[in-house]
Amino acid sequence: MITLQVNGKPRDIDEGLNLQSYLATIDVNMRFIAVGYNGQVVRKEDFEKVALHPGDALEIVRPVGGG
């Protein structure tokens, strides 16, 4: 297990996951999210290339409707 910061909170995840795999484990709609990885926005086509390491910081954002 490793610990990441996800939206400012510590999260323990299995070691060896990439960003794509992690997002699948938390059941997010990949079509409607943006992800920041250690302060950099990651393009969706690069999610699979991003290896996650202890202490990494993720910001996962989704659009919210309203008015």
UniProtKB/TrEMBL annotation:
Stretches that traverse the bilayer: none
The name this protein goes by in its record: Uncharacterized protein ycf40
Superkingdom per UniProt: Eukaryota
